[in-house]
Each structure stands twice: as C-alpha cells, then as structure tokens.
Specification:
alpha/beta, Alpha-Beta Plaits, 24 helices, 17 strands, 60% helix, binds ligand C2E, binds calcium ion
C-alpha cells in the first residue's frame, strides 16, 4: 500500500501536469524568463573552467567541446527569448516543457562528463575548481528549473549523484568532505523545491479559481458581462484574421420585470436560471452565451454559415425562451427578443457590433416583440438621422420651436366632443417638421424628455385654460416622466401653477412606463390620481399587461390602440380583441377610448360593439390651438 503510494508520488514528480493547462502555462511563463538566465550562467561558468584548464588540458577539451556546448546553449537561449514575446497557449507550453524535460538529462550528462574529463589534468587548485564549478553551477540550474519538477530532479540526480560518487571515491579527504556537503545541500534544496512547487501549484489554482469567479455569473453559471466583452475581443481578432463572419446577439426578455414585481425576486431568479439553461441548449456549439446582467443575455456567434442561418437559429432561441416554465405551483411564460449585428457586413469593430445589436433589439422590440431583428442598412440610415435629430434637439429653443396641436375625443352616443388630446409638434429651423414619434424617443434616450414635457405641458395647459369647463384635456407622459418622485413633483407643480383644474386633466401613460419599475409607476400614478387627475392607459393591447397588473394601477381610462381598428373589418381577431377589451373596460369600470377611427365602416362596427368614445381622423385630425373654440361651436361632421 505504502509502496504504491510512494510510486504514485514519484510518478507525479516525474511527469508534466498535462491535464492542468493553467499550471502548464504558469510554469511555461516562469521558464521563459528563467531558462535564458540559466544558459547565460552555464556558459560563463563553463568558459571560466575551460580557461583555467587551457594550459594543461588538450585543445578539444578546453575549446572544441565548450564551443559546441555554447552553440547548443545559444540556440536554446534564443528559442526561449523568442517565446517570451509570444502569447502562451496550452499546446505551446506543453510542447516547450516536454522538450526541456527530454533534453535536460542529455545536457546535464554532457556538462558533467566534460567536467570530469578535465579533472585529471589540473593541479589541486584546478581540481578544486572543477568540484566548485559542478557544485555551484548545478545549484543555479536547479533553481532556474524549479518550476518544472521532473527536469530539476533529473538534473540534480545526474549531476549531484555522479558528483558525490566521483569525489567520495577520489580518496582525497577534502573532496570527500565536499561530496558530503554537496549531497546534503542537494537534499535540502530538493526538499525546498518540493515545498515551493506545492505552493506554486496552490497559487496557480487559486488564481485560476479567482479568474473563474470573476468571469462567471453566479446566478446562471453563464459567462458574465466582463467575460463576454473579453471573449468578444478575442473572437473579433480571430474573425478578422481568419476572414470569417462574426455576429453579436443581444437578448432581452419581454415582461421579466413584471414577473419580478408580481411573483417576487426568488421566482424571477429561478426563471432566469431556467432561461440561461435553455439558451445554452438552443445555441449551436459555435455560439458563446453570456448574461450581461438583469434580464439581458448575449451571444457571440463565430464563423456561422450566413445571416439566414443566424436568423433561423435566433428564432429557435426565441421559441426556447417562450416555452412555458413551471416553478413549483406557478407556470410562467415570457418572451424574448433578439437583436443581431454582423461583422463585417454591418459593423467594423466590437463597439459598433455591440451598439448595432442593441439598436436592432431596441427597434425590434418596438415593432415585433419576441422576434429576431437583424441590424440593416435601414437601421444605419435611421441612426444617422437620429443623430441629426439629437444634434438639432440639443440646440433647439424649445419654447419657440415646440407647439401642441389638439385632437378631439368624441362621445359617439350623444355626438359631442368631450375633450382633446394634446399632441406635440416640433418645427426645427434646420430639419423642418419632425414628428413626435421621431423626436420623443431621441429625447428620452438623451435625457431631454423632462424639459420637453415641461414645455409642452405648460403650453397645453395654457391653451386648455381658455376652453369651456366641460371639456377635458389629455396629455401624454413619457416613461421617464414617472421614473422618480422629483419628476412627478415637477408635473404637479406645473399643473398647480397653470390654474387648470386637475380634475379635467387626463394623463396618458403607456406600458413601456412600467416595464422598468412598476412600483415607482404605481406610486407616481397614485399621487397624480390623488391630485384629481385621470390616468389613461395608452396604446392598450400592444403590450403585455396582465389583468392583475391593470388592477394594481389607479386607472380611469384605457385607450385601445389604433392597430386593432385598422383591420377591424377584415381581421376577425382584431374584432374579437376590440370586443373583449370593451367588455373588460366595462367590467373594470373604466372608460374606453378607441383610437384611430378613419372610416364610417369602422365607426359602424364599433357602435355595434358598444364603443362609446372615439378619436380619429374621421372626426378630425389634430387641429391648431386657435381652432379649438371654433371647432367646439360647429356641429360634428359625422352623423
Ligand atoms: P399617441 O399618444 O397614440 O397619439 C395618437 C397618434 O395617432 C397621434 O400621432 C395622432 O395624430 C395619430 N392619430 C389620431 N387619429 C388617427 C387616425 O385616425 N389615423 C391615423 N393614422 N393616425 C391617427 P402623433 O401626433 O404623430 O403622435 C405620435 C405619438 O407620439 C403619440 O401616440 C405619442 O405616443 C407621442 N406623443 C405625441 N405627443 C406627445 C407628447 O406631448 N409627449 C409625449 N411623451 N409623447 C407624445
Ligand atoms: Ca396618447
Ligand atoms: Ca395611443
């Protein structure tokens, strides 16, 4: 038993740690510095000994052999110096260390035999020099090789073993004593080497573990944000040099924040773990998956076939995310959208790859949730235009350039106008008229929305103050306007200053407002509701709101999105949706406004469904503030 243990540890000492790449690379790095040092010491000492023997020993021993050994040493030295400038990989390290291990006994033997060869020629001083040369040089060599245990041990055994035997048998007391000294020192040195090596391996594995921990996402076990970006750099460099395509995909879960809000963080965490596993399973081998943080994941696809294949794989990933997940007694189902961008087609560096994938995701989420969006030339043009809008907006005189127009909201049952929705208009001196759908998102992104809302609200309230007291005002708030108690306070102050009765004001919010922080939106809307304002949920039906969710907000109205009305006549699904939304609003005691009525046919169908309040081009396009009073005095055009 003990013998097998001993054999095992001998075998361990005598072998290179092939299956431990971190250790191999660390050993190799140490070697690239220490081996050149070793050869320099070896050569200088060797020429020192050769010089002291030149007058007594033959030429071939003092010149020819040292020259040969020097040539070999220089070749090895240059080899190591070159390696020190290269990136170390597992394969390179293994090859270099194996070669060193194979060569070590031959080189050790050659130097030992050469030194013994000189011994008989010198006087006692020179003989002592031979002994000193061997004893001291081997210590240097062992130190330089201590990171490669098998080589250090081999050298120690060959040089010191023959040294001790040779001098112990020399019959001279001084040499016998030197032999004993050297044997003892060698034993001590080997013992220290073993301890040092153990510490070294411990340090390397601790460093490897730290590296692993710093690069892993502890919740899902996937690579984390830091690992993602360093992998992206690596994959990009490889793709560039190989001339292969590279894609970055960013995945965002739709409605994950709601899961967190409604079911708690523990459930949210479990869902993220499940989705992390599904992503890895759904991705082919050449796809690298990471979690960027929150509910955002990302992919690097190296050397994929073409974009058709990429999008097809993206769709598989989306459907993997969409599958229902059971967590204890609840079953959850959420979607995920992916934005891809591809090098070299649509991005030329890693920053652009990531930014474009993010842009594609953002735009994809707006038009087609739960789907794959590939960054295109169209997006590129949009980005350039948005940059222009951003520039112009930053230099805009908001007070002069922003105006509001008003679109009537009509009660169909008694054919009366019950209020107007304020809609923003921007006339830029450089770009001309820009629609709110274009500039509001830019203002949100650049943090200018609060100032814009303030200007628009002030103008809208000032106009509405002149209207008859039965007429209401609807005003659109952006998600950012509700994102903090301060911004809400600003709105309240603005309303107070205007002198307009808050009870006549409806604030419209969209579902994008509560994707981020539902609790904050609830607090904000409750505050505004307490002030007397109505709260309308805009673009209803396009988002993901659950009923529990609607119940949790102090809503007074819902506005059914125009997209359902557009194909009301032709699409039975739209018909059913509008019907059930109307029923839902009735059940929840909420007013319901149907948006975007353009034709009499649409209106007729709506009437059969019981839709009472509508807004749309059929009654009126948005009109100038100055036209409102006149509009109210005229009878409505549509019977
Ligand atoms: P929204 O709040 O859904 O506003 C309704 C949009 O539908 C308006 O477009 C309106 O002109 C248009 N619309 C009304 N009836 C019809 C119709 O029958 N057919 C068609 N095709 N369109 C109709 P607009 O003014 O371009 O505004 C677009 C969006 O920009 C708004 O959608 C709203 O989300 C945002 N927005 C507008 N004004 C403001 C504002 O003051 N603040 C904020 N935060 N967002 C605003
Ligand atoms: Ca609106
Ligand atoms: Ca709307």
């Amino acid at each position: 038993m003990k013998l097998t243990k001993l054999l095992k540890s001998v075998r361990e000492i005598a072998s290179i740690p092939r299956d431990n790449p971190d250790l191999l690379i660390a050993q190799y790095r140490a070697f690239t510095f220490q081996m050149p040092l070793m050869y320099v010491v070896l050569m200088i000492n060797t020429w020192g000994l050769a010089t002291t023997h030149m007058h007594v020993a033959p030429h071939w021993l003092t010149v020819d052999i040292p020259v040969i050994m020097t040539v070999i040493s220089v070749v090895r030295l240059i080899g190591w110096l070159r390696r020190s400038r290269q990136e170390a990989s597992h394969e390179i390290a293994l090859e270099a260390l194996s070669r060193t291990q194979r060569l070590a006994p031959f080189i050790a033997l050659a130097f030992t035999l050469w030194a013994f060869g000189l011994f008989p020629y010198g006087d006692p001083y020179e003989k002592a020099h031979v002994a000193f040369y061997m004893a001291i040089t081997v210590i240097g060599v062992i130190f330089c090789m201590m990171h490669l245990r098998p080589a250090a041990f081999t050298v120690a055994f060959i040089v010191n073993g023959s040294f001790v035997i040779f001098f112990a048998l020399s019959g001279t007391l001084v040499f016998v004593a030197i032999a004993v000294n050297t044997a003892l020192v060698s034993a001590a040195m080997l013992a220290i080497l073993l301890v040092h090596y153990r510490d070294f391996t411990g340090m390397v594995s601790a460093r490897a573990e730290n590296f692993r921990l710093a690069n892993i996402d502890s919740l899902t076990g996937l690579a984390n944000r830091r690992a993602f970006f360093s992998y992206l750099d690596f994959a990009y460099a490889r793709a560039k040099s190989d001339g292969t395509p590279l894609a970055v995909g960013i995945i965002d879960l739709d409605g994950f924040k709601l899961v967190n809000d409604i079911y708690g963080h523990a459930t949210g965490d479990k869902l993220l773990q499940i989705i992390g596993t599904r992503l890895v399973e759904a991705c082919p081998e050449n796809y690298y998956v990471a979690r960027l943080g929150g509910d955002e994941f990302s992919i690097v696809a190296s050397n994929f076939g073409d974009t058709v294949e990429l999008v097809a794989n993206g769709e598989l990933i989306c459907s993997a995310i969409r599958a229902a997940a059971s967590l204890g007694d609840i079953t959850l189902q959420i979607g995920g959208s992916i934005g891809f961008s591809v090098f070299p087609d649509m991005a030329s560096d890693t920053t652009q790859l990531f930014a474009n994938a993010d842009y594609a995701l953002y735009h994809g989420k707006r038009s087609s949730r739960g789907k794959v969006t590939l960054f295109s030339t169209d997006h590129d043009a949009k980005i350039r235009y948005e940059a222009k809008i951003e520039q112009a907006l930053q230099h805009a005189n908001l007070e002069d350039e922003l105006t509001v127009v008003f679109q009537p909201i009509v009660d169909v049952s008694n054919r009366s106008t019950i209020g107007f929705e304020a809609l923003a208009r921007w006339g830029s001196p450089t770009l001309g008229a820009i629609t709110p759908a274009q500039f509001i998102p830019v203002a949100e992104r650049t943090g200018m929305i609060e100032r814009i809302t303030k200007t628009l609200l002030k103008k809208a309230l000032a106009h509405a103050l002149l209207w008859p007291s039965t007429i209401r005002l609807s005003f659109n708030l952006s998600a950012h306007d509700l994102s903090s108690p301060d911004t809400v306070l600003d709105i309240i102050t603005q309303i107070g200053k205007s002198g307009f009765d808050p009870a006549r004001l409806d604030l419209e919010i969209t579902e994008t407002a509560f994707i981020r922080d539902f609790a904050q939106v609830r607090r904000a809307t409750e505050t505004l509701r307490a002030l007397g304002c109505g709260i309308s949920l805009d673009d209803f039906g396009t988002g993901f709101s659950s009923l529990t969710h609607l119940h949790a907000l102090p809503l007074t109205k819902i506005k059914v999105d125009r997209s359902f009305v557009t194909d009301l006549n032709t699409n039975p699904t739209s018909y059913k949706i509008v019907k059930s939304l109307l029923a839902l609003s009735r059940d929840m005691n909420l007013d319901c406004i149907i948006e975007g009525i353009e034709t009499r046919d649409e209106l007729a169908i709506l009437k059969t469904l019981g839709g009472l309040m509508v807004q749309g081009y059929l009654y009126s396009r948005p009109i100038q503030a100055s036209e409102v009073v006149n509009f109210l005095e005229q009878p409505l055009m549509v019977a």
